[in-house]
Recover the amino acids of this structure.
């Protein structure tokens, strides 16, 4: 279902907003409004429950039609992230994941640097009640948590999008201040597009399935998530992925060349 | 109607939120939720259109009952502000008023200083469509405008309250924002001792020598450096190294377990 709509450039060239399994059309509309309030326009929807287009979304968008009209649909989170170099996944709960965790303000500064370096960035939001699954989180580079009253931290979906988008807009509007791209994580090069990383995952996991490493089946999902989180943290460049592919091939190929 | 309800102290001792002529109960409920998300609890209502208490407000508050239960009613804006030392009036439009104009971030910092000096502060919001009247604005010390996309700046009432409250909470809860930079690379766990990392390198490189990957000899040093830099950048924890050892072992062991 991807790629059927025309591409609408972001008003500020800002990050893409991706909603995974959004339920109420009204919430999608409020998200669109919050995005456009903050100069963002590129919305992606993964399996919207009530179908698309959605009249309730239009009513709630209060005129942010250009965001809804340009929204693109995807069947999987992985497909929705394929062309992005850097992905932030929002989470309300502290998770036992080995991953970089930032506030919206820190994310905004990082994204500004990334975009200045020619990367594409995305903000990933889960469904209204459940939030993102661990599998979806494992596709992101970084976790993003809004600092809120710990005794009452449950934020409406559109409110969460608003806070993150608002912080982006505050940073995007500061033309004077220079925020250098985070170079050290990728040695000066941009992280590879997520599609390349997914392709490495597929290769690695196929090889490990072949050897019986991802066994028994009940443990496989957790092992796969663990590995993916580990390599996501590396934020590999295209060159890094070539190296890693080379290593996997070499280790699988039992033949000695010497 | 003022003063009939019991006083509820603010969770953070923060500013009071005053809604003038709010229309939909649902919006009042969403305001209560946004306030409590950000540690604010003292709500005042001037002439709520649909009366008070309001069932739609309770439903939309999503559990922020303590804010609604403690809300106080007033007949005039002046009465609602009577005990406050410093009042910020939100406005979307640039008005022809000779008044101090600040952003929510600036307001939060100012309010923090005012409260520390023993003052009481309030945030004044107008009705959903019209916003505050000039008469109401004239009761405030300072105008507050949220920096937003000038082409689409109309913010839902609860969204406006959220942004201002959120900025307050960021200033009030400075400790919540502190995320030490070293921790983020390993998600709270310490990177493994370098000896463990070296041991992994030795293992990986021996395996790759065996397969003939690090060949020809003239290129070996550069290839090894490249790989080592890649895994150094990951700053692997002990658990990460166990995972990586497992992967290498599995890829080398050609035997299928299944």
């Amino acid at each position: 279902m991807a790629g059927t709509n025309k591409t609408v450039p972001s008003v500020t060239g800002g990050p893409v907003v991706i909603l995974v399994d959004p339920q109420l059309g009204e919430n999608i509309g409020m998200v669109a409004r919050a995005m456009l309030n903050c100069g963002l326009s590129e919305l992606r929807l993964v399996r919207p429950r009530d179908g698309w287009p959605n009249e309730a979304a239009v009513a709630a968008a209060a005129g942010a039609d250009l965001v809804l009209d340009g929204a693109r649909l995807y069947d999987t989170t992985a497909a929705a992230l394929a062309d992005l170099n850097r992905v932030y996944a929002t989470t309300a709960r502290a998770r036992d994941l080995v991953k970089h965790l930032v506030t919206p303000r820190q994310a905004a500064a990082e994204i500004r640097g990334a975009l200045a370096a020619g990367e594409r960035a995305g903000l990933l939001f889960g469904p209204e009640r459940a939030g993102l699954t661990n599998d979806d989180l494992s596709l992101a580079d970084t976790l993003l948590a809004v600092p809120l009253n710990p005794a009452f931290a449950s934020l409406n979906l559109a409110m969460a999008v608003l806070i993150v988008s608002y912080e982006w807009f505050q940073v995007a509007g500061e033309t004077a201040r220079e925020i250098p791209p985070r170079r050290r994580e990728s040695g000066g090069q941009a992280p590879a597009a997520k599609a390349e990383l997914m392709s490495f995952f597929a290769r690695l996991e196929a090889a490990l399935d072949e050897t019986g490493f991802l066994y028994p089946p009940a443990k496989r999902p957790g092992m796969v998530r663990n590995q993916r989180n580990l390599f996501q943290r590396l934020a590999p460049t295209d060159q890094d992925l070539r190296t890693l592919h080379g290593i996997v091939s070499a280790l699988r190929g039992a033949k000695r060349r010497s």
Remarks:
- The first strand of chain B starts at residue 16 and ends at 20.
- Residues 1-11, 175-188 of chain B have pLDDT under 50 and may be disordered.
- The longest helix of chain B spans residues 194-211.
- The radius of gyration of chain B is 29 Å.
